Amino acid sequence: MAGSIRVTMEVGADGVALITIFNPPVNALHPIIIQGLKEKYAEAMDRDDVQAIVLTGAAGKFCGGFDINVFTIVQETGDVSHLPDVSVELVSNTMEAGKKPSVAAIQGLALGGGLELTMGCHARIATPETQLGLPELTLGVMPGFGGTQRLPRLVGLPKAIEMMLQSKFITAKEGKERGLIDALCSPDELIKMSRFWALEIANYRKPWTRSLDRTDKLGSLSEARAVLSMARQQAKKVAANLPQHQACLDVIEEGVLCGGQAGVLKEANVFKELVLAPTARSLVHVFFAQRSTTKVPGVTDIQLKPRQIRKVAVIGGGLMGSGIATALLVGNISVVLKEVNAQFLQRGQKTIAGNLEGLVKRGSLTKDKMNKAISLLKGALDYEDFKDVDMVIEAVIEKVPLKQSIFADLEKVCPPHCILASNTSTIDLNVVGEKTNSQDRIIGAHFFSPAHIMPLLEIVRTEKTSPQAILDLITVGKIIKKVPVVVGNCTGFAVNRTFFPYTQGAQLLVSLGIDLFRIDRLINSFGMPMGPFQLQDVAGYGVALAVKEIYAAAFGTRNFESGLVDLMAENGRQGKINGKGYYLYEKGAKPKPDPSIQPVIDEYRRRAKTMPGGKPVTLSDQDILEMVFFPVVNEACRVMDENVVIRASDLDIASVLGMGFPKYRGGLIFWADTVGASYISSKLSKWSETYGDFFKPSSYLEERAKSGRALVQHSLSQVGF
Looking at the annotation, which residues are catalytic? Predict the structure, then answer.
């Protein structure tokens, strides 16, 4: 490994030392690289034949930032001495205060610590499309190599705060307009121009600028304070549970009030505190967990090669089908959309066009790419165009006989290599493919709504699904920018099964006399995008009513039988779709709690008969959170025990990307381990005595509670990080 990770230096006849970072694929700042930079810079400063320095990265990429693997070592050991001194020793003292000027030659990307290195140089030359950014806050830390001090001095306080707090990237072209980049040039001219610029500085023909000494872009003290105050208020709104945002603003403020050097020293200290804090531990865990979901034993480790999927048929142009088709089209994959009649087909095509226009409005798709995507779509009312498709994704309503007849037809009309996928969210795939002889090609491709936006793709395999089909679907998932998680075949698969107690627990609490709007507020404050009742409004009641019997049959006594949604539907409420659910939905306005649902709630409680002695229970906020989430953890334990997931961290990613579980808590299982299996099990045992089997701890959870082992320690394989 160390052989491919290196820093080189070549001194030209012009007196310029070219220092190059080699660490494919993105030239991350591994400790070997940092040590190499210190050594090469020391050598360049000492050599008489070196007048100036150009710093660059190999293979068309400057540097993707600090090597995050070091964070895991620091977090496992609790020892911050594993963090090399880059900020003061290298960037401030060696580069910026050095007796010879440095110019950064930037191509591809300069992110995090990579961008911070460039800001320690005396000028920055870049290719126009190079990506620049400081995304450290997404990992629970903040820029730690002087970025909190130098970026505001180069681009101004408002833009610097936006780039850091929102982890927003800009192109070098914008960087030039903002003052971060000194000059733009083509990749072919980059090194030549940077060498020239470095010599011009050395010979005092261009300014020898130390970013940390600049104050001209900071504005007056009162202006700076006003900008910081507004940023703090905004951070409290959008990142209330994230300490790194306020910490970053504290460090920026220190530099504004006490000077850049003081800011750099405070930044180094606060960075060390943040890296060991729970938020950073959680976010670093999610970072690595997300990268391990595509490591599937028996699939990705047996030298199989993915086949090219050029053309996919989608059956059903409703909300899910049109969303799936949109995602495929954006990924440059040809789509045949099949519907039962011309009217439905036209509606589906119109929805896809609307989805694509929405992506253009959001800035995530150009008009040219939208037009290309539309050109890849073909409508169909029969199977004529299925003879050369590589994959079919069925996305019709959750009716077993309908799905079975479709799959029987597909086997006859599709080529033998074609993958037969279903977007079912609950139905057993063995039942779906029962009437075919192609069990090895049948697989679940469970997207989450809206399918062209939600990042998770649950890939469901049966015992007969071939490794090739799984690998091909993983590859398609990556092409269309989804995070694929491979799971086993069972009712609800991983996400919907794990989270079925989420809504049921909330409904049980309402039956006990707890205000449903209080439950939603608490769950939202915990970090979920919305509470379970608003979520049900948004999803529509049709889904809940459709899966009710399926869950009752599959989960037996641990299924909480609730008639609340039935009563809401009888009352003429359909959720967001008709503007009336638990909340009222008016165009352009935020959802408002609807007090007129009280008679429905009263009737629900009367029928449920769960209130002890017929009187509402009194519960603390913590009780409510635990009674909603602990049954979810309990079901996750069963999911792990039955090997539905490969590793515990896959459930963390599925919970974050599929259900919106707060990323900064590390995902469901990671969070549960911070609470402790023993505590969770004891609370569930206590509630099960009062309220029944819905809360009964699983054998897996009880065993972990008794042995003191972490929930996360279970996995099918040691593939995970």
Answer: 116, 136
